[in-house]
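From the methods appendix. Each design record in this collection lists the tokenized structure first, followed by the designed amino acid sequence. Records were kept in a plain field format so they could be parsed without special tools. The example shown here is representative of the layout used throughout.

RECORD:
FOLD TOKENS (677 positions):
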């Protein structure tokens, strides 16, 4: 139901809202300058000192390096140039970064710069989508600005995970649907399907989470018959299948023995990876983890991780479940700054446009971004396991779109009580939640949270007061004051997110779970030193002597080691191909023991590397853990020595037939070119 000033205050003179009509007018000079400043500013901010992130996530960096060296590795997204195994994601992201490496030479800059440029593209698409439906370039600029200053955007568009290209393609699909809505354009609907097809090839089902929102918005709003709307949707679905299915078909038709194993799958098929490890199994918390025979992280008999270490984060962790997940912990810092305000804005736009025709474009755009936010947010809230905070990058454009559309609609109706009261609510939602988030990091810039809260409260009170009938005598001055208050409130609402995004940019982000905001100091605990040792070990030791040893090899793979992360770290340090036994979790069934034995006989691998860790005596539960029948594995020759090998069969065979001649840190080295026992 549309709310009018007369309904709320009959004695107040009515100022009719300005209704957008026709086409987007040519940009005025200040609008062109503002857009240029937004895009150039985004590029400069995101490209500035980008190499501070070094190799970012070495897991994906190794695949980028491999793709810059070998065309087959680029095509399939191989972790190694020898094409033994892929990363556990489709290769679109690697295509972009590896092609940059082939053109400019592989480096941190050539790998990460394309990610930052994608941010500029996403901001431009947000600007275009919102400006077209509102016929307001100011609203488009606000949408682009909100996206730019979202902390998770500032983090992940300077990082080498596949999320950046996925979100760019999701945003492109939303833009295409917005372009399709005014005239029910089949061309733009099909282009949306193509964009989503490639988003699927970036990160599988996560790239398609926006599909229900886009499909519903088009079927509800497009100005044509229901039959045509459904046919157009089927055409878009066909475009999606073609634009993604060709790669799936390629993995089927290409002989499996001449391409890398598709990591994460149980049977070397793409769809098993889609529906299993990276799909429903991940969502439902049923991913296959652990080694081929036993859990590689199980301690030897007679040893146990102390409870203090588990509480210190050595054991399993997560972000909880339920709707509060999006507002708490690291996820809250990364994405939730404007989340309450965006949800409120979505509702306010639907209420404000309640009596408009079915084909109302602004409401249609609100459905695009609002349903995207609600559906994807609900899916993230219900995800059982494997949740990283940065996954929420997928809803950043939806938040930006909802917030900008809400501000525009309230601005348009600023002469009415609805615009002022709604504006007050929106400002409070953004300001109070910004205060709450900053309060969680109370030692950082304490003045900021109080300033945001004070401005938000003052603005909200001012807007409510200006709604009262006695203020009607102020005439046009009331509208001018309303405009100033709304602008001040929006600036305050954006301040917390902007400050955290700015604080994110200069920090070095490496590893699998980067975080936003200023540098945080962790309180030392009993598990810290041991955890750091394991992280260093499983992330790939780069001892200079070990690196030099690998660089002297002449075989197809310089070494073989369990799990992709340590293999990736060694590859990047030595620039040699390293075999990742068992893939990312060590659970992939490759290579089998006979396959590994044959590769050793064919002189394809020089070294076998395995962690060899001496456990603290304080972890003993049995005073004599080395007595007969009380050892961890037959190959643990000394008490308290832990070999967390993922593939026990390969480890047992190697240790039975070869001797560990060298050790670098906690990594034992077996020379597979030596005569076996």
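DESIGN:
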């Amino acid at each position: 139901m549309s709310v009018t000033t007369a309904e709320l205050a009959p004695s107040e003179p009515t100022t009719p809202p300005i209704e957008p009509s026709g086409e987007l007018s040519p940009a005025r000079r200040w609008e062109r300058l503002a857009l240029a400043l937004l895009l150039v500013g985004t590029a400069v901010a995101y490209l500035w000192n980008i190499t501070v992130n070094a190799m970012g996530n070495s897991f994906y960096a190794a695949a980028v390096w491999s793709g810059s060296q070998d065309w087959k590795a680029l095509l399939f997204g191989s972790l190694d140039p020898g094409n033994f195994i892929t990363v556990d994601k489709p290769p679109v992201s690697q295509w972009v970064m590896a092609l940059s490496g082939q053109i400019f030479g592989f480096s941190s800059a050539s790998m990460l710069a394309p990610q930052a440029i994608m941010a500029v593209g996403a901001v431009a698409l947000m600007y275009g989508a919102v400006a077209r439906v509102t016929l307001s370039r100011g609203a488009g600029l606000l949408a682009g600005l909100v996206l730019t200053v979202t902390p998770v955007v500032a983090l992940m568009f300077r990082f080498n995970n596949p999320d950046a290209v996925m979100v760019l393609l999701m945003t492109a699909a939303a833009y295409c649907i917005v372009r399709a809505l005014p005239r029910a354009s089949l061309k733009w609907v099909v282009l949306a399907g193509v964009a989503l097809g490639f988003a699927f090839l970036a990160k599988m089902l996560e790239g398609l989470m926006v599909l229900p929102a886009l499909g519903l918005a088009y079927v509800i709003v497009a100005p044509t018959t229901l039959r045509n709307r459904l046919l157009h949707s089927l055409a878009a679905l066909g475009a999606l299948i073609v634009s993604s299915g060709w790669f799936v078909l390629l993995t089927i038709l290409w002989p499996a023995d001449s391409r890398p194993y598709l990591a994460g799958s149980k049977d070397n098929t793409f769809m098993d990876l889609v529906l299993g490890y990276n799909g429903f199994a991940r969502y439902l918390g049923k991913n296959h983890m652990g080694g081929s025979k036993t859990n590689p992280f199980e301690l030897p008999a007679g040893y146990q991780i102390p409870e203090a270490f588990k509480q210190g984060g050595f054991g399993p962790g997560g972000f909880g479940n339920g709707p509060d997940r999006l507002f708490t912990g690291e996820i809250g810092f990364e994405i939730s700054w404007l989340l309450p305000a965006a949800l409120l804005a979505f509702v306010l736009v639907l209420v404000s446009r309640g009596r408009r025709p079915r084909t109302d474009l602004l409401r249609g755009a609100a459905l695009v971004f609002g349903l995207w936010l609600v559906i994807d947010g609900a899916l993230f809230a219900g995800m059982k396991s494997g949740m990283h905070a940065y996954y929420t990058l997928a809803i950043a454009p939806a938040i930006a779109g909802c917030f900008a559309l809400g501000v525009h609609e309230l601005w348009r109706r600023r002469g009415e009580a609805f615009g002022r009261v709604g504006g007050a609510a929106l400002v409070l939602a953004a300001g109070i939640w910004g205060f709450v988030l900053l309060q969680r990091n109370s030692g950082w810039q304490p003045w900021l949270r109080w300033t945001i809260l004070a401005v938000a409260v003052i603005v909200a009170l001012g807007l409510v007061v200006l709604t009262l009938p006695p203020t009607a005598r102020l005439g046009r001055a009331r509208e001018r004051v309303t405009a100033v208050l709304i602008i001040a409130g929006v600036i305050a609402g954006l301040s917390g997110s902007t400050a955290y995004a700015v604080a994110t940019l200069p920090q070095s982000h490496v590893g699998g779970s980067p975080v936003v905001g200023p540098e945080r100091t962790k309180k030392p605990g009993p598990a810290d030193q041991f955890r750091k040792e394991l992280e260093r070990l499983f992330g790939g030791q780069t001892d200079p002597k070990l690196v030099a040893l690998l660089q002297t090899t002449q075989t197809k793979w310089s070494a073989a080691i369990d799990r992709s992360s340590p293999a990736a770290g060694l590859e990047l340090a030595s620039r040699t191909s390293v075999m990742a036994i068992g893939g990312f979790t060590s659970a992939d069934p490759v290579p089998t023991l006979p396959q590994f034995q044959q590769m050793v006989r064919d002189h394809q691998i020089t070294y076998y590397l395995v962690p060899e860790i001496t456990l603290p005596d304080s972890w003993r539960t049995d005073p004599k853990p080395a007595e007969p029948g009380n050892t961890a594995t037959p190959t643990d020759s000394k008490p308290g020595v832990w070999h967390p090998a993922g593939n026990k069969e390969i480890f047992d065979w190697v240790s039975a037939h070869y001797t560990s001649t060298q050790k670098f840190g906690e990594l034992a080295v077996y020379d597979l070119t030596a005569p076996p026992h």
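APPENDIX NOTE: The first strand starts at residue 557 and ends at 562.
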